[in-house]
Structure formats: C-alpha cells, structure tokens
Fold Transmembrane protein 115.
Amino acid sequence: MAALRVFSRNLPYLRQQFSALLGNTSPSVKFICVVVIIGYILSFSDDVVDVLSVTPGYLLPPSFQLWSTFTFWFLEIHLWEVIIDIVTVGLCGKLIEPLWGQMEMMKFFFLTNVGVAFLTTFYYLVIFACTGQTSYLFDIHVHGLAGYLAAVSVAVKQIMPDHLLIKTPLGKLTNRSMPLLILIAAIILWAIGALEGTYPCMWGSGTILSWIYLRFWQRHSSGTRGDMADNFSFDNFFPTVLQPVVRGILGPPHRCLVRLGICSPSPRRVHLALSPRGVTISMPGVEPQDMERRRQIALKALSERLSKTSEQTRQKNLSTKVNMDAVRKVQSQVIPQFPSETATSSQAAAAPPEATLVDLTDPVPPTTKQS
C-alpha cells in the first residue's frame, strides 16, 4: 500500500515526463508504447501469456505457431520492464528515427524481434538436446522487448560509440561497452534468481542479430550496404585485452561467409579527393552524415572541455586573489605602518613652521618691583 501511495503521488510527474518523452514522435513509436501497455494489462491472465508468448516446443513442427513471433514482443509481466520499454522506444524515436527514417526504423524493429524469437528457440533446442529435459521446450515462455532493447544499444553504439555516460573508479563507461556490460549483468541476475533465464538469451540474440543487420545488410541512402568501419567490428564489443582472441576465433568463419557471398569483406582503402574546401577523406563503411554527426559530437565535447578548463582557471585565479587580500590584511594588522619620507615632507610643507624672533642686541631691561 505504501508503494501504491508513492506511485499515485508521483503519477502527475511521471505523466509529464512521459508526455515530454513521447512528444513530437512518429505514430509508430506511440503505437508501440500503447501496445506494450495493453500487453502488460493482458499479462495478468496466464492463458493469455501461454497464447501470446513464444513457446520453443510449439514454435517448432508440428505445431508451428509462427503467429506468436508477432505477438510475444508486447507482452511484459513486470511494470519496470514496461517503463524501460517505453523509455527506450521513445529515445529511439528521438535519436534513431530522424537519422534512419520511419520505415527503416520499423523494419529494424520487426526484423530484430522475429529473429530473436527464432534464435532464442534455437538456444533452448540446443539445451534440450544436451539435457534431455522437455521443460526447456514446453515450460519456457519467451516474451518482451529485451531483444529489441539490445538492438537499440547496438545502434546507439554505432551512432555514438565514444559518448561518455558515466565516470567510475574503474574507468569511463561509454556506449561502446553497454551491450556486453548489460548482458553480463543479466546473466548475474539470472544466476541469483532475480531475472528470468529468457532475458539474457533474448539480449544476446538481439545483440548478435542487430549487429549482423547493421554490419552487412542495412541499405543506406548512398546505395551502399552495411557499416564496415573498424570501430564497429564484433571484437570491438569486448575489452581491448580480449579483442585479439575474439578476432582469431571469428576470422575463419567470416572468411568462409565472404567466399560464399553472404558477407562482404572488410575494405582497407581510404579515398582521398581534392575539393575547393580542401582534402576530402572517405573511409569505408562511414556515411557522410555519420562523419558530420560525429564531428559535431567531437566539437561539442571539445567545447565543453574548454569551457570547463576556463572555468577552473577563473576559479583558481579568484581563489589566489582572495588569498593575497587575506595575507595583506593580516600583514597590516601585525606590522605597524610607518609614514614614508615623501609623506613626511609633504606634511612638513603643508604645515607652516611657527618661529619666534628674539633681538639679542638690546639688553633686556631689568624688572623692578614697586611697592
């Protein structure tokens, strides 16, 4: 009851924040948010959860319930998951949709969710083959937008890889490390029983599928496909120490897929072109709008750093001035101030001397006392 009273007290503030978040967004973003709220209301019925969620055993033949791959994503059973979904979709509409367009964003949404349903089912099929327990096929219900949240984190990493989120004693936390960090946190929470086992499976599936789509298949306005930039390679998701190991493991499969024509090779050429404004450098896999956006982000970060440095310098100079004034005040109280020679001479010139003239030639007449 106390939690309900706190929620009702903060309801106007939350409504204001959500309206500001979803304001000026496309109808598709608002539609996703409304459907997620309706799915949370329907999740209180166990029969609805069984029907709308993806059950690995029923998605496979002979049941083959393919329609569940289009309904599982809006079914959330926890309120905090609904809030995270709405906030993520709203931020996606503010950040990604203006760059990609509404159609590309919805295409990314549906491809990611459908792929997460099949890849998560494949995970549980492998676990069933290793353990022989049928509970992994018929007692597991895959639902929610965890896979799409992972896909959004990968897209944000592609757009703003070096954007600083928070500084920690262990180092700086940027968008580059968010997908792997959240996956590790989800595995830890599942191990202690605070999270369902489907969440890390869906997050890992969404991370892999979204990276494959953005890396090799996404079509850009210039007619090119994918993003073959070096800072968006798969080993870049891992710490620097593990990157050579990951690169050595994934190198042979990538070369096989390139020979089969499924994946494109990683180009290493840099194109130089002369223009009236100077030399233009075109790097493979980097769109001109991406370069301009990253340049603006770098200029903004540089401006903030310079303003911070100037503010620190001003504060330091101000504190030095205050300290010097305090030292002079203390010295004036301890050491007596003597007038200078100039002040003494000026005072002597200002005050005329008083002199008495005495005539020494005339004797002083004696004084007589008369009675």
The chain has a mean pLDDT of 77. The longest strand covers residues 164-168. Residues 305 and 311 are 10 Å apart (CA to CA).
